[in-house]
Amino acid sequence: MKRRSAFFTIVAAGLLLFNACSKGPTPEESFQAYVADWEEQDFAAMYGRLATESKEAITKDDFVERYENIYAGIEVHNLKIQTNPPEDLEPDENGEVRIPFELSMETLAGPVTFSFEGTLIQEEQGDESGWFVKWDERMIFPQMEPGDKVRAKTVKAERGEITDRHGSGLAVNGTAVAIGIVPGQLGDDGAEAKSQLADELGISVEEIDKKLAADWVQPDLFVPIATLPQGDVERIAALMEIPGVTKQDVPARVYPYGEAAAHLTGYVGEITAEEWEELKEEGYRKDDVLGKSGLEQVFEERLRGEDGGVITIESEAGEEKEVIAEKEPRHGEDIQLTVDMVLQESLYNEMKGDAGTAVALHPKTGEVLALVNSPAYDPNAFVLGLSGEQWEEWEGDPKKPLLNRFAQLFAPGSAFKPVTAAIGLEAGALRPEEKREISGRSWQADASWGNYTVRRVTDPGKPVNLRDAFVYSDNIYFAQTALDIGEEAFLEGAKGFGIGEKIPFAYPVKASQLAGEDGIQSEVQLADTGYGQGQVLMSALHLALTYTPLVNGGNMLAPQLEKSEGEPAQEVWKEQVISEETAELILSDLIDVVEHPKGTGREAKISGVTIAGKTGTAELKESQDDETGTENGWFVAVDTDDPSLLIAMMVEDVKDRGGSHYVVPKVKKVMGDFLRSD
């Protein structure tokens, strides 16, 4: 009886103590405060809420460091903890309160969840009396014991590859050669070896010394200094002759076609601190690479994939005890383009040395067969490590190899005349057989034009109809046609060709324009617009697309960059932009531009192939009398018997080099080679 009385006395005392403590934070409130700090990953504040016996078992610094290292290592984010206290929460015979909780978090190995319980005890700490958490390793992971370690490993996703229509790689996962030093093998003349290495690599000895001074460097460890492409065989062999210098194969993004596809593929690079801050919520890590330009950037989300990972618990003896979480990597998507790299290289080689751009399409499907920029850079240099010297060379090159011209706008000159003719025919403002009486090589509408005149290169010495105007590329004829059409109808007709709109295309290309923001401001500007001058600006891609209605019954096609399964399906951007009759008429006239012995495109004639084409020479100068200006030359051509290739090429600075006649043979060469091989 006395024992029972004593037991009731103890319990009563415990209840009195529990109730007395209820004047301060309750156990639920105390644990909820601990959980709030936990969700914020404020580990120092968490430590302040631990019971005395827990603090005696682990120091604050060790506690904070343990949590920080584990959570950083497994890449914890979106940490959430739900407490589930029982309704009849009371201390047990030891004065302890247990509150179940469920934890969920995202990690490098995917979502991790577990259920456990927090144990609290009432005690005094200094001047504070309340409920404190009894902590041990099981609150990190329930499977853990003292001395255990948490191990995390990222399983990298492979970046998707970019290939051409035939499967040839444009951007692939390959290997490069890391050139480095094993310090212990430098020998007595290490300074000389480093000097030789610096000279060969185009870097300073100070850069080499900085890498050799890293904390992790040991005499027998390989210290990477630079990375070279596998194909640089002779240079690598020469480097291997230097004492202490050795090599290792390392994974690398490789661009097999180099300059020929540089602006198309772009390149990848290491993520910067600023980029990581912006993208970390999308799963990027500080050691990731991402697309910096070109298709590597455009298709970044599809190419990058998603890393996998595994989290394990390892015993003090180094043995794996349990796998906490595991996620397989999701490799990036491989993307096959419509581009034909044989054609791409052929165009690039024809243009090499000149500044300009070229676009090739399949005129019946809209498939983009080539997007060429000249000159260009080597994208491999950005991946392997671009020297300051090389960057300065590219930056200072007046031909601007870093500029992506196929995404830019240029005055199309006379290559725009088919658009003017189409608008005039559709508006009823142009009668193709009607001959205009034009005298001489210059003309103005009236005296209000002042000293300004429209000039033509050739005076055929006879009245000119539409066919003649195309053959001789008569600026005066098309200037007069533009005035007959009128500003409003011309603007409306240009909209029909998508001018002023963004092209529906995966690769970002600037929108073309017929005039600036203020529109067509004068009769002179309207006249100049008729032959592709004034303020007309077009990309080579858009200009090429305006020729597709001529072989598609009046429909203007949308460009396609990704190869589809099976036979390509034609995608129409602008349906019936012109009538079938208008299309046939203009196409016939453009055939004469090539076939006629005096046609401006006569140099494009290919035996056994019927080519339609239009030349263009765009003047770039401050005024009509400016003698210091330059010229860009254009030629757009399409085979017409069984249309399979349409090329638009522009070469800058063709003044005193034949104007557009400098460009025509280049297009002919590429077109002839392609059609014969096809």
TrEMBL record:
Domain Penicillin-binding protein transpeptidase: 356-671
Entry keyword set: Membrane, Signal
Position of the signal peptide: 1-23
Domain NTF2-like N-terminal transpeptidase positions: 26-147
Molecular function terms from GO: penicillin binding; peptidoglycan L,D-transpeptidase activity
Domain Penicillin-binding protein dimerisation: 155-321
Entries under Pfam families matching the protein: MecA_N, PBP_dimer, Transpeptidase
GO biological process: cell wall organization; response to antibiotic
Coiled-coil positions: none
Cell compartments where the protein resides: Membrane
A GO cellular component entry from the record: plasma membrane
InterPro entries the UniProt entry points to: Beta-lactam/transpept (IPR050515), Beta-lactam/transpept-like (IPR012338), MecA_N (IPR007887), NTF2-like_dom_sf (IPR032710), PBP_dimer (IPR005311), PBP_dimer_sf (IPR036138), PCN-bd_Tpept (IPR001460)
Family that this chain belongs to: Belongs to the transpeptidase family.
Name of the protein this chain belongs to: Serine-type D-Ala-D-Ala carboxypeptidase
Source organism of this protein record: Novibacillus thermophilus
